[in-house]
Request: fold
Amino acid sequence: MSARITRRDFLNGVALTVGAAAVHGIVPPEMWAAAAADLEAQNVPGYVPGYYPPAKTGLRGDHAGSFETMHKVADGAFWGNPPKAVDTGESYDLVIVGGGFSGLAAAHYFRKAAGDKARVLILENHDDFGGHAKRNEFRTGGRTILGFGGTYSIESPAPYSAVAKALIEELGIDVPSYHKYVSNDLYRSLGLKPRIFFDRETFGTDKLVANPVHTGEDESGLSDEGKWGLQDFLKEAPLSAKAKQDFQRLLTGDKDYFPGLSSDEKKARLVRMSYAKYLTDTAGVSDEIVKLLQAFPHPLFGVGIDAVAAQDAWGLQLPGFNGLKLDPTPGQGMNRDCIHNDEAEKYFFHHPDGAATIARLLVRKLIPAALPGNSATDVVLAKADYAKLDEPSSAMRIRLNSTVVKVNHRGDPAAAKEVEVSYFTGNKLKTVRASNCILACWHVVIPYIAQELPEAQKRALASAQKVPLLYNNVLVRNWSAFQKLGTSAIYAPGMYHTGVNLDIPVSIGGYECTKKPDEPIVVHMMKAACQPGRPAREQHKLGRIQLYSTTFETYERNIREQLARMLGPGGFDPARDILEITVNRWPHGYAYEYNSLFDQFWLEGGETPCQVARKPFGRLAIANSDADAYAYLDCAIDQAYRAVQELKK
Ligand SMILES: Cc1cc2nc3c(=O)[nH]c(=O)nc-3n(C[C@H](O)[C@H](O)[C@H](O)COP(=O)(O)OP(=O)(O)OC[C@H]3O[C@@H](n4cnc5c(N)ncnc54)[C@H](O)[C@@H]3O)c2cc1C
Reply:
């Protein structure tokens, strides 16, 4: 239990083996209009008194108001009848598009190089900073309960670079001290174990059963807990006798399905076939087992085993590979998430609001007045003062609710001294000028706003399909139903949300996590919006549409129904026990990571699309985690650093 609980483990429900509800709906458009008018009247660009986005519930993540303008730009409607541009007269040394971690880190590195007096403006289309690193706050019974709306933890499959590590240290985060803050044994001490929920639509009956599948513990793919749980699982699981035999064979058998082939030859086969195909066509297991394992890679890739290579499944220690006796070195074309690294494994830190704490520390460094306090722990409960983010007297400014619609050089990009950046906010189109611009926003957006870029680069940028995800936080009155059912973490392969978990118990900086089952807690529910059977990028595109077009009412109904079905036998009543819901909708979620099943170049080597996409152009440099096709915070930092070095040149 001293080991980290990875995103994969946590969201898969294998983590921590260790009256009417007042639920708010989507923010009504008239509220936004009123807020915008208010801001204009006060001439305060972005904030009204009491403006505090972390406390908003309802539909968050890519919330209403954050995406509509950019969608209009993308479908051509915006420039059909554009509002007249207003020149703010502002000019900066650097304008950064995107206030996610990469944008914040770029501001930090630029100011380090150019000095604190350098004038820097970050333009961000959401109502909060941090991008995916999103803080959700709830209030109940006089206390604040935190949840992570996006980025879960400091964790990466590969070791943090010296640059990324140095930033984490500079922010004061002592990663090795994590064990002091987490109550690793809390759930285990109460007898709570990971479980699988079999649903009646997929498996014929609703049933909660011991989860015997663990990853990363030993070669067999079974943790001690898992070995212990396998017998229970085989007894209880609503699977046919053949499926149970197949499953046991996968977990414990040692048949070589490719006799006579070398390890490299076996990997060369595995890299081109999906794990689902490997299970049915090579290992010959029943479809029921495919259904059982289908959603296992959701937390990492946002797709199921139909779109994950068998070689990657081997790297993730999924069952079925014991008998192949593969050489442990990574095979060609393996996804970086699937390559185990001991050093990386140990570098882990989860804050109660996920990486939002890290974003807040970075904002404190950039604009100290915006976040009171002076330590990496007191920041957890510090209340951000959003009015301080964009003060005219400050050299460093962060302007929220501002969608950049155009970035162009003033003159020939090769010789221009300035860039003009146009952004839409409060129903107005405004412009600022800058000596340099870093595009730290999603790469799919860049071809629309930086039209001067070469066509080949725009194509490469456009190929960075984001992975659509839902990270829902549900504040419940208590977790006694979890206790009665003996679980803290549920994997539900056939349900709307495939991972349902009690919050990770971390107490830090005066924040006390919930430790008693009769106290309120945040339940985290995760969904990957995918369409099995299609190529990964196509699944992501369809999933994105699905997430944007689903109403809060539907999300809410799915949450309530699922919790009722899974936890009802433990006494859970959604009408009585759900206090608040925050749906974090991320249609533009993880950076797309290359996949040997669909990206030939990843197998063959050579320049990757992200390398083409991130080339500097005139006074523009390009950051974001898309710039290295790697869905991790350290990537956002590394790419910010690179972009700033390019500007320095
Ligand atoms: C749900 C989820 C969970 C994750 N969990 C982890 C984890 O546990 N550990 C980890 O290391 N990584 C995790 N990641 C990945 C990690 O969060 C990202 O790699 C990192 O935060 C990306 O930062 P970024 O600045 O590159 O992008 P983003 O955070 O996406 O920031 C880019 C910003 O640009 C803005 N933008 C886009 N277009 C415009 C425009 N036209 N004008 C103005 N602004 C614009 C976007 O709205 C966004 O806020 C997770 C990601 C997601 C989605």
